[in-house]
Design a protein that fits this description.
Length: 373
């Protein structure tokens, strides 16, 4: 049934000018629908063209919707337009979009509050911003269109949030960057990958071009952005097993160790907060903060000025870092235990949540094992 819906979409889209060359949508077990090569593809080969006449954008929104939501975000306007759409063509498009059940299982905004509370702190911060934006948009839309149900709006809002593309026109160039968004058919079936196809657009078309060679049967990707797994999980409902941009935040383990005067010293030099750990190392900001805990102010300033070799204090700073990592690992263990004991939500939700904590544990263990303390 799923592939029948894809075939109907392709029949409609190609009749409207969409061109696929060497690719097709295909069901991928356990991953939904993706785009795969039907033949060997060279690098820099155009594989998909979508005419701008098929984009769902601010400019294609029916005038009565736009007029009722003049002060709302483009995100809200597009979601409201989806809720109010009744055309048969849009039904063909919607048939291949993620279901409500898929969003409910994968997107933390749809999870029970008890599971949301077990997200890593960075993911919780992203979720709080997402929820605030969703609530603002719902407030505007519900006031203008009281017949729209909140569940319907949230579903449409999540579609827009997870499947739009960056796009500008002379009319939208002055809007905030977050409002430079459009929906487009077929192209929204690409999954995310680090080595994605190149994407470009002009007034006439959206074009997708290979960035490397592919063999027949290979899946092709686009890159949603250089995002951590916390961001990908909250915004898109998945986390990558291998993600070169993944990181874990250390603020809650580092900031409480610092006095008010130390905090001020770091703020004065733009080193307060945003302490991160990735798969390879702890960031320089973190090491600068930990060094302040270990050295007197004069020697710390000398390191910043480059007149003192930071390696002179490596052992004592690494020991402090190991304490931070051990506290982080203990907290990870507590959260994994709480996830394992949880009964709210579905097993899929709990599995996604647990896997995220395990990823972070791997980063912490790798970082700790590299220290010779």
């Amino acid at each position: 049934m799923e592939m029948e819906a894809v075939e109907r979409l392709l029949e409609w889209a190609t009749a409207e000018g969409v061109i696929l060359d060497g690719i097709k949508p295909q069901h991928l077990p356990g991953r939904g629908i993706g785009i795969v090569a039907t033949r060997r593809l060279r690098a820099d080969e155009r594989i998909l063209t979508v005419p701008t006449t098929l984009l769902r954008s601010l400019e294609t929104t029916p005038l009565h919707i736009f007029a009722a939501l003049t002060n709302a975000s483009v995100h809200a306007i597009l979601a409201a337009s989806m809720c109010l759409e009744t055309s048969a063509e849009f039904d063909i498009w919607c048939a291949v979009l993620p279901s409500r059940e898929e969003f409910a299982a994968n997107l933390p905004i749809c999870w029970p509050p008890s599971l949301q509370a077990l997200l890593p702190s960075a993911a919780q911060a992203i979720l709080a911003q997402q929820r605030a934006k969703s609530d603002r948009d719902w407030s505007a839309v519900s006031a203008a269109f009281p017949d729209i149900e909140r569940d319907d709006f949230l579903y449409a809002w999540n579609i827009v949030n997870s499947r739009t593309f960056y796009h500008t026109t002379p009319e939208t160039k002055g809007l905030p960057r977050d409002d430079h968004m459009v929906l487009q058919p077929v192209a929204d079936l690409f999954n995310h990958g680090a080595d994605g196809c190149l994407v470009s657009f002009d007034d006439e078309e959206y074009v997708f071009t290979t960035s490397q060679e592919h063999e027949a049967g290979d899946e092709l990707f686009i890159r949603y952005g250089a995002h951590s797994n916390d961001f990908l999980l909250v915004e898109y409902g998945f986390a990558l097993a291998a993600n070169q941009w993944d990181e874990a935040r250390l603020d809650e383990y580092v900031c409480p160790l610092l006095s008010e005067s130390q905090k001020q010293a770091l703020e004065d030099r733009d080193y307060w907060g945003k302490y991160t750990l990735d798969a390879e190392s702890v960031c320089y900001r973190t090491m600068t903060a930990l060094r302040l805990l270990c050295l007197d102010r004069k020697r710390w300033l000398a390191v910043l000025a480059g007149t003192r070799d930071e390696d002179l204090d490596k052992d004592v700073v690494d020991a402090k870092l190991l304490d931070v990592l051990n506290n982080f690992e203990a907290n990870i263990a507590r959260h994994i235990a709480m996830v394992d004991a949880a009964t709210d939500g579905t097993q899929d939700m709990r599995d996604i949540l647990r896997a995220r904590w395990v990823q972070m544990k791997d980063m912490v263990v790798t970082a700790a094992s590299s220290l010779h303390v």
